[in-house]
Amino acid sequence: MDLSGASSLQLIAQSLPFLLRGAVYSIGLGVGSMAIGLVIAFFVAIVRLQRVPVLALAARLYVSFIRGTPLLVQLFLIYYGLPQYGVTLGPLTSALIGFSLSVGAYSSEILRGAIGAIDHGQWEAATVIGMTRWQTLRRVILPQAARTALPPLGNNFIGLIKDTSLAATIQVPELFRQAQLVTARTFDIFAMYFAAAAIYWILSTILAFGQDRLEVRANRHSRRSVA
Amino acid sequence: MAPVSLQSVTKSYGGHSVIHGIDLEIEDGAFVVLVGPSGCGKSTLLRMIAGLETITSGTISIDGQTVNDVPPKHRDIAMVFQNYALYPHMTVAENMGFSLRLAKVSAGEAAEKVRTSAAILGLTDLLDRYPRQLSGGQRQRVAMGRAMVRNPKVFLFDEPLSNLDAALRVQMRVEIAELHQRLGTTMIYVTHDQTEAMTLATKIAVIDKGRLVQAAGAIDLYERPDDLFVARFIGSPQMNVLPGRIETVRDGAYTVAVGGDARIAFQGPPPLGTGATVSVGLRPEALTCAADGPIKGRVTLIEHLGGSSLVHIAGPGGNPVVVQDVGAPRLKVGEEIRLRAAPAGTHLFDGSGRRVASGALA
Q1: Percent of chain B with pLDDT over 70
Q2: Which CA distances in Å does A211 have to A198, A223, B243, B279?
Q3: A121/B102 touch (CB, cutoff 8 Å), yes or no
Q4: Contacts of B228 (CB under 8 A, 6+ apart)
């Protein structure tokens, strides 16, 4: 498309399909990473709560490393560093792994806190009526822990959607990367980055609204009746 | 229904022993209350019966079966917890019927059992509510209902009323007693409130520092405490204890010197030799004003409780004495009075705290 001489607004309008394609990438990357990350988080949280000897130490080191190093460095280690050892991964795969590991570490602490906050009597009451630990976790503990974990996990997800912009540094064609590519051709830096920022903001606002609705639903049985 | 037997049961954490060889027989259909001060090991003992704590040594049997290594779900017990442990994401009906669902009971039968239990406990109108929408007393009833629907051999209660206010505690106490009469199931109940213990129990087991001090009926414990700990623990207000010494002994009688110049005369052969250090236990309700009473004191405080009053007195040797119902409205703070003790509320304990005589006033 020829964008020379166009005004900033025209430029944004013409680039919108291009940017939205990037936004779809960002959302896909965010949703995929969140889904995989939550699975990792659940197992890491359980391993740490159960204090499984060697696994608990490994889990603690994993969480410590991920939380103690920048996400950008982690992405570079995966995309640019691993090929040195014969492991070559595509940009999207690298980003998915990097973000999933990051989500897994941060969310495992949220889940661990939420599960740990459930009164121990709940475990015991379930034990007395004959539930296994797994049944208790699935039917009694997790439904309660989910309510506690939902707000911070929601915040994590909103943060993750914005953090996908870091994938631009490893050539993933997400929203920010698309904005960079348009800027390289048009040199209207402010307009393009402002448009990208606006899309991120709209996405975050929609997600925050969705999170609020979800929290209201999850807490419907924990509000006292005023009758 | 089932008898429960504890034989030489001990519990240690590392090298630290918390339960020291407890022997206790709980008859089929009995309501046994484990009572004692905080940290005495009563909850640990209950949890061992439930299977939530392992046994270091000894034997626990339920209905003749040794259950030391039997998991909680196979012990056929139901437990009501101090904080109720209701599932907040389930309605009252779901909370009550949850264990039946696990046991693969048909939906119709489970619903019927829940309805029956709810009717007994006055929960019929609350079945669709969530725990957060209930008062403390209602939550307590749901916890009891959840235990009831399983029709267990033994009910275990771990300080179930401690989170309720005073009025509700009294009401729930009555409801638990009525429930026991109705079901006739063996119930083991932990509390540190001796009033609760005395009003509910067919047998009270008094525990102190991980040891069973005495197990008997409420009246027995009150009238014939084995030692000073039980004497002080059972009864409200607490028994007055005055340090004394066996003084004169003559033909079938002896006197005990208490404080400075107070002398209490006892009948019968002295349980200990002259000069022996003893403690005289006097129940507050056994003391009355009498011009010729042997115990002298000065009124320091009067607590009016409506139907009765508690008079606090600086007694012999400055030892505090509490008297219940001595025509308190007539008394004034600072007034000097004399007291006489009724035999039924008087006990003598030796230096180790063991009861050596009761009610033998001259």
Answers
A1: 96
A2: 20, 18, 70, 69
A3: no
A4: B241, B279, B281, B349, B353, B354, B355
Residue by residue, DSSP assigns A68-88 as HS-HHHHHHIIIIIGGGGT--
**Which of A128, A141, A150, A225 to mutate: most B Cβ within 10 Å?**
A128
Amino acid at A120: H
Residues sharing a CB contact under 8 Å with residue B138, sequence separation 6 or more, in sequence order: B123, B126
Identify the CA nearest to A77 among candidates A173, A180, A178, A166: A166
Comparing CA positions, the residue from B322, B356, B320 lying closest to residue B225 is B356
Which residues 76-105 on chain B approach chain A with CB closer than 8 angstroms? 77-79, 81-85, 87-89, 91, 98-99, 102-103
Segment A191-221, tens digit of pLDDT: 878 888 888 888 899 999 898 878 886 765 5
Write the DSSP string, B269-292. S-SS-TT-EEEEEE-GGGEEE-TT
Q: Specify the pLDDT at position A227.
A: 39
Which segment of B32-46, B156-170, B244-258 scores lowest on mean pLDDT?
B244-258
Q: Is the Cβ pair A130, B103 closer than 8 Å?
A: yes
Interval A99-129: pLDDT, tens? 999 999 999 999 989 999 988 798 889 988 8
Question: Which one of B53, B76, B84, B89 makes the best mutation probe of the A interface by having the most chain A beta carbons within 10 Å?
Answer: B89
Cβ neighbours, 10 Å, residue B207: 24
Q: Which two tokens stand for residue A142?
A: 């997790």
A13, A186 contact by CB (below 8 A): no
Contact criterion met (CB < 8 Å) for A144 and B87? yes
Q: Which residue has the higher pLDDT, B356 or B4?
A: B4
CA distance B148 to A129: 12
Q: Is B165 exposed, middle or buried (0-12, 13-18, 19+ CB in 10 A)?
A: exposed
CATH class name, domain A8-219: mainly alpha
Does the distance separating the beta carbons of A122 and B87 come in below 8 Å?
Answer: yes
Q: Domains along chain B?
A: 4-232 (3.40.50.300), 237-356 (2.40.50.140)
CA neighbours closer than 13 Å in the CB half-sphere of residue A226: 0
In DSSP terms, B156 is beta-bridged to B79, B188
Q: Does pLDDT of A2 surpass 90?
A: no
> For chain B, give me the number of helices (H) and strands (E)?
8, 21
Q: Judge whether B134 is closer than 8 Å to chain A, CB to CB.
A: no
Q: Which residues of A touch B70 (CB under 8 A)?
A: none
* Between B325 and A105, the higher pLDDT residue: A105
Question: 3-class DSSP state for residue B35?
Answer: strand
| H or E element that contains B302 | strand B295-304
Interchain CB distance below 8 Å, A129 and B73: yes
Which whole number is the average pLDDT over B306-311?
83
Mean pLDDT of A51-69: 90
Angle between helices A8-50 and A91-116 (to 10 degrees): 50
Average of pLDDT values for B116-122?
Answer: 90
User: Phi-psi region for residue B64, left (φ > 0), alpha (ψ -120 to 50) or beta?
Assistant: left
> B83 and A119: CB-CB below 8 Å?
yes
